[in-house]
Structures are given as structure tokens and as C-alpha cells.
From TrEMBL:
GO cellular component assignments: plasma membrane
Keyword Lyase: no
PROSITE patterns: ABC_TRANSPORTER_1, ABC_TRANSPORTER_2
Localization terms from the record: Cell membrane
Name the record gives this protein: Sugar ABC transporter ATP-binding protein
The species this protein was found in: Streptomyces kanamyceticus
Length: 501
């Protein structure tokens, strides 16, 4: 249906695609995998008219193709969900769903009531009920992604491309997404699927293409390739090394002190949180469990002063801090890695070095002078440990691959040396090699005496990473699991209960 032959694409300092051959067939779900920066998004952008290839040929439905814009490709029947949500945040949900193909009345004006009705129906089919008149940005990241999905599924397409569609979805939404993908496959549509979550790939994909440093290193049926071999191919390492290192990188539990470093009590934010309490001791990793909309991100934001609270108290190392003030929280030693990195953090026009050092500058300065050497050391350490792929520390962050941008932001907050670190989905979008590295870094920080709050929709990560898990539901604490109680079964059971604890 859609194929690329010997396609190359070079950016200043990096060959993002090197003679890539790729074929997506009708009625087949094709996994495209590789480390952060391997070239997945670039290939998709070449296939869908965002970039023109430097050399090489594209074929669509049997004839040579050259799309000059994404709209071109869309009109030809290629529907894409990009890694970065490329919808318009200020426009309504409905408008975003029908962007460029709004239903129109006799005078050529947009038929709003029909658009709202159709939008509601398309989303209801996906199990999402929202007010489609509200601006898109008022929705959480997961719900925004469902809107992008509804949009892709409602277009009459022959090829559907999904670049990390599940990265902000909950298990229930992932089920819905897979239902949609199966329907697409039955309708003879070619689906291209990019994800770092291996379980999902094995569940939904038929074929796989593995990219490494812009080259295709493997292509074939996914069922013929076991997980270890897949990872070894991706990382370019021997299977034996991968087996020894394992796939998650958390070590057992931590020795914790008894006096808590963080006490958050009875946090209440109207419509979001009701009497939520969390304590974290130095050296402890406390997980926050719960479904989408259960109040996990809101809890982290309320603690970090990023969300005004109606009532409740936060104390750090015994000292009460003013709630609702980010500067007060930062001064007290709280740092938050937010969920929506694009809106709340990354500065695309600044370099990798500047983005990492940004928040730590006060700590790295003396008498108003910045210690450039210490910054270099710090930046080098994080680039190495998190395997940030950049042509140099001076490259603009906006030019990095999605996963590498995430790593830069994570490095910024880790570099702050806070007393309490709040991590909202720290490994989302990060490849398995670097994910293991992030996890061991979290462990290491806890061992150094930091208190960590971990929010992750990756259940395995939450369970293996946390010493204790506080479970939220509808903005209330419903359970707390400690030590050996922290198991997937207990977590699921706690989420399913209806009575607040
Ligand atoms: N606009 C750009 N300018 C300069 N370099 C770029 C640009 N876009 C991508 N690159 C580089 O091309 C390489 C491939 O990036 P790409 O985004 O395709 O990776 P990816 O496989 O999608 O990674 P991820 O899993 O992190 O999303 C990276 O080294 C990246 O820094
Ligand atoms: Mg990408």
C-alpha cells in the first residue's frame, strides 16, 4: 500500500535515515521500532509529506508518490497521529476532530450543531464522554490523544500511521485503541505503529521493522522474533548482555528514615481532590496508583504549588510551606517533573546544555558568577547516563527526537538535587535502554536520601519501583499498599473498590 525504497534524510550533523526500505501492506499492522533518535518519526514524516526525502522513492497504492504537505497525504488517504499532539489547543474538541473537513451548510458556513453531534458520537464510540464544545487544552493529555485517534479513525483512510499513540493512555483506553486497530486491519487498512512498549507490540502487530541509527537492521514477522532478540537488535548488543542486564532496573527496597521529609495532609481542590494525604520519608519511593482522572497528577501539582488548593497542608522536613506557590515549593526543595512536558517545560529554542542547567543555575553559581566547568560536568554526566542523543550539548532541544527531549527535561529536574522529587510519568516515550537507566537513577537518588513520588501508568514500573503505593480514586485516597503488599493484584483490587478507605 505504502512503501519507501532507499530513502535517506540528513539533518545538520546527523543522518536520520540511511537508505531505508520500508513496506506497509494492506490489512497488516506493522511495528516500527528502535531506540530514541533511531529515525522512526523521521521516516513517518517522510512517508506522510512533512519532509521531502533527500534521495529515494515512495510508492503509494502502486504508483510513485510525492506528497508535498501532510494535507496532501491526508487527502490521498493517509491518516496520521503524530508523536507530538499536533492539534490546536485553543479550538474546541469538535473543531479539532473535523479540522480541514468541517461539515458545512448551504452557504458554506460550518454547521456547528452537526459538527458537535458527530464529534460526540465519534468520541462516544471510543468510550470518551467530554463536552466537545470545550477547548481541547482543557482535556488531559490522554484524552487529547483519544481525540487525535477519533480523528484518524473517522477519516476514510487506506493507511493509518500512529507514532506512540499509547504513551499517555490508560490500560482501558489502550484496549479501546486496540479494538479500533483490529477493525482497521479487518477493513484492509495498512497500519503503521510506533511504540516503546513491547507487550503492546506483541499483542497487536503482525510485522516489524527495526531501525538503528537511521538504518533498517531487521524486517520480518514479529512472531518469529522473541523479546530478547528484539531488544538486542534495537540496542545493537549481544543477546547475552541484554539477558544479564534484565529489562527493568529497580533493585529491592530502600532503607528509609522514620521522620518524613514530606507530609501533605488533607489536600482539597474543588472538583479534583478531596482530603488526599501523602507522606514520604527520606530514601523512600512512594508510588501513586489510580486510573486516568483519579487525581494523581493533581496531587503532585498541589504539592508542588502548581495547583491552588482550597485547603490542606504541606510540610517539608517539618516546616510548613505556603501552598499554591511554585517558588515557595521550589525554595523548600520540591521539584516536579510535569506530565505535559511540551506545555510545561521544554524550551525548544535553547540548547541541550541550557535546558538541563536552567533550574540548577542558582545552585551552580557563586557570587553571581556561573561556574561553567561544573555545568559542563553536570551536562556531560546526564548526556552519558541517560544516553541523550544529540550532535553536541549545544544542539537546540527542538531538533532532538521526542524521547531525547523527554530525557533532557528529566535531567533538568534530577540536576536540581531537591529534597523531594515528584515524577509524573518519568519514562513515558523513553526507549527501554534509557528507561532502565532512568529507573536505576531513581533508585540511586532514593539511596542518597531523596524522597520520591512516582506516578506511572506502567504498572510494572510502579510496582517494581515503589516501596509503598498510595491508591487514588476519584480524587480520594482509597488504599495504601506497603512492602510485600505492593503487587499488581492488590493494586488492581484497590482501584476496583468503590468505598474510600
Ligand atoms: N528537525 C530536525 N533538525 C535536526 N535534527 C533532527 C530533526 N528532526 C530529527 N532530527 C534528528 O534525527 C534523528 C532521528 O530522530 P527521530 O525523531 O526520527 O527519532 P525517533 O526514532 O522518532 O526517536 P524517539 O523514540 O525519541 O521518538 C535524531 O538524531 C534527531 O536528533
Ligand atoms: Mg519519535
Amino acid at each position: 500500500m505504502l512503501s519507501a525504497k532507499a530513502v535517506s534524510k540528513t539533518f545538520p550533523g546527523v543522518r536520520a535515515l540511511d537508505e531505508v526500505d520500508f513496506t506497509a501492506r494492506a490489512g497488516e499492522v506493522h511495528a516500527l521500532i528502535g531506540e530514541n533518535g533511531a529515525g522512526k518519526s523521521t521516516l513517518i514524516k517522510v512517508l506522510t509529506g512533512v519532509y521531502a526525502p533527500d534521495t529515494g522513492e515512495l510508492t503509494y497504492n502502486g504508483t510513485p508518490a510525492r506528497f508535498t504537505t501532510p494535507l496532501d497525504a491526508q487527502h490521498a488517504g493517509i491518516s496520521t497521529i503524530y508523536q507530538e499532539v499536533n492539534l490546536v489547543p485553543l479550538m474546541s474538541v469538535a473543531r479539532n476532530l473535523f479540522l480541514g473537513r468541517e461539515p458545512r451548510g448551504r452557504l458554506g458556513l460550518i454547521d456547528f450543531s452537526r459538527m458537535h453531534r458527530d464529534a460526540e458520537e465519534a468520541l462516544r464510540d471510543l468510550g470518551v464522554t467530554v463536552d466537545v464544545r470545550r477547548p481541547l487544552r482543557e482535556l488531559g493529555v490522554g484524552a487529547q490523544q483519544m481525540v487525535a485517534l477519533a480523528r484518524a479513525a473517522s477519516v476514510d483512510a487506506r493507511v493509518v500511521v500512529m507514532d506512540e499513540p499509547t504513551s499517555s493512555l490508560e490500560p482501558r483506553e489502550v484496549r479501546t485503541l486496540f479494538g479500533v486497530i483490529r477493525t482497521l486491519r479487518e477493513r484492509g487498512i495498512a497500519v503503521i505503529y510506533v511504540s516503546h512498549r513491547l507487550d503492546e507490540l506483541y499483542e497487536i502487530c503482525d510485522t516489524v521493522t527495526v531501525l538503528r541509527d537511521g538504518k533498517v537492521v531487521h524486517n520480518g514477522a514479529l512472531a518469529d522474533l522473541d523479546r530478547l532478540r528484539l531488544v538486542a537488535l534495537m540496542l545493537g548488543r549481544e543477546i547475552e548482555t541484554v539477558r544479564k542486564e534484565g529489562l527493568t532496573n529497580f533493585t529491592g527496597t530502600h532503607d528509609t528514615e522514620t521522620e518524613p521529609v514530606l507530609v501533605a495532609e488533607n489536600l482539597t481542590v474543588s472538583h479534583h481532590l478531596h482530603d488526599v494525604s501523602v507522606t514520604i520519608r527520606p530514601g523512600e519511593v512512594v508510588g501513586l496508583g489510580g486510573l486516568l482522572g483519579s487525581g494523581r497528577s493533581e496531587t503532585a501539582k498541589a504539592i508542588a504549588g502548581a495547583l491552588p488548593t482550597d485547603s490542606g497542608r504541606v510540610t517539608i522536613a517539618g516546616e510548613r510551606i505556603r501552598t499554591g506557590s511554585t517558588p515557595a515549593a521550589i525554595r523548600a526543595g520540591i521539584s516536579l517533573l510535569p506530565e505535559d512536558r511540551k506545555a510545561e517545560g521544554i524550551v525548544p529554542g535553547l540548547s541541550v546544555r541550557e535546558n538541563i542547567a536552567l533550574a540548577a543555575l542558582p545552585r551552580l553559581s557563586r557570587f553571581g558568577l556561573v561556574d561553567e566547568r561544573r555545568i559542563d560536568e553536570l551536562v556531560d554526566t546526564f548526556i552519558r547516563r541517560l544516553r541523550i542523543k544529540a550532535s553536541s550539548p549545544h544542539q537546540k532541544v527542538g531538533e532532538l527526537s521526542g524521547g531525547n527531549q523527554q530525557k533532557v527535561l528529566l535531567a533538568r529536574w534530577l540536576a536540581m538535587h531537591p529534597k523531594v522529587l515528584l515524577l509524573d510519568e518519568p519514562t513515558r516515550g523513553i526507549d527501554i535502554g534509557a528507561k532502565a537507566e532512568v529507573q536505576s537513577l531513581i533508585d540511586e537518588l532514593a539511596e542518597q536520601g531523596l524522597g520520591v513520588l512516582l506516578i506511572s501508568s506502567d504498572t510494572e514500573e510502579l510496582i517494581e519501583g515503589s516501596d509503598r503505593v498510595v491508591v487514588l480514586k476519584d480524587g480520594e485516597t482509597v488504599a495504601e499498599l506497603t512492602g510485600p503488599e505492593v503487587t499488581e493484584q492488590n493494586l488492581l483490587r484497590a482501584i476496583a473498590t468503590t468505598e474510600p478507605a
